Amino acid sequence: MGTTTTAVRFQVRIIYLYRKRFYTAHAMYHRVRLALDFPNASCRLRGPCGLHCILECMPTRFTFAFAALMAAPLLGETPGFQQTDIFEAGQGGYAHYRVPAIVATPKGAVLAFAEARKSARGDWGTQDIVMRRSLDHGVSWDAPKVIVRLKEAVKKNPVAVAQQLGVEGEVTYNNVVPIIESLSGRLHVLFCVEYLRCFSMTSTDDGASFTEPVEITATFDKFRRDYDWKVIATGPGHGIQLRSGRLLVPVWLSDGTGGHAHRPSIVSTIYSDDHGKSWQRGAIVVRHPELKNPSETVAVQLGDGRVALNIRHESAEHRRAISYSRDGASGWTKPTLHPQLLEPICMASIIRLPPGRILFANPHSSEPRDPGKPEGNHKRQNVTVKLSYDEGLTWPVSKSIQGSAATPISLSPPMGAST
User: Fold this and answer.
1) Which of 58, 243, 248, 261 is positioned for an S-S bond with 328, CB 3.0–4.6 A?
2) In which band, very low, low, confident or very high, does the pLDDT at 179 lie, cut at 50, 70 and 90?
3) 0.70 cut: is pTM over it?
């Protein structure tokens, strides 16, 4: 069989935490042969500090791109790699930064978000939501800025006070979730305050400005007939837009009686069918103890239109749980554990890449944090990207990008896409 060679440059965006700094990385790769008889090959791109990003060619396709991935047909490009500090612990008046998210707009802006924490002790101290913005595809970035502060006084969540996790006067902004509408380019940003209230705001200028936050906690109140929650959280990571236009955000809720006031817990979704003007609750997907303390969940739409949820939990099997729904809101299947996707008990990320590929990233780690408690948390290390060609049924390609302690990470859909 003859072969055809097309030169394509892929601009790869990575956001992950390593040694108390959030980084983005930019890699370029080209010369992709679209032919069945093209032999397997790989290109290793080395960046500063020995970091690697590996793109592997396979027959008729190539593997993975991290974070906001943008492609443009360009001829004669040479592979290269760049790495940039985005958020650094101890800088900007914050002890550290956690829970990242990254999106790329149709106009090419790249927006990176994180929780900026004044204290390193946990999730309940003084925290802000910060954003950095790049208008040159991640080559340079503006200064970090706090994107929201409520005008009214904020009371501490009573469950945090009861467990001495926080005190009045400390305000916790948490779990930022950006979503890009693919046609309009409108950016929706959901976030929580004190794990007790939820808000939404929008931007029509690629994050240069935002509307005043609109409270949508009433959407979560609709869960109370099924679950008397005291703690709520969106995402984390990016939300998605389904091909129907529906905006979809995974959520988790807790009654706040257990450890860190985040346990026990349930997982569900919220969604909007009117471009974010109103939000509705979905059905409960899973609750403790069906899975032990299910929480941070990511979503991807499959080729047949179904939505797959990839669920963090604390069960002893240490494998990510998967559930499916025809519409992202109802009829969820009983979660099953995927044998290839390790669960160290940490945030993960998932995106869809056309045509017919899905990327998943998390710390691929089976080393217990406490050797005496192998059923507990595993070390957050060996950040790995996996690639599926069959809608997440199998993950034949797996590449480690950071072997040492590094967490958390975020992938974003291709520029202007939200699936």
Assistant:
1) 248
2) very high
3) yes
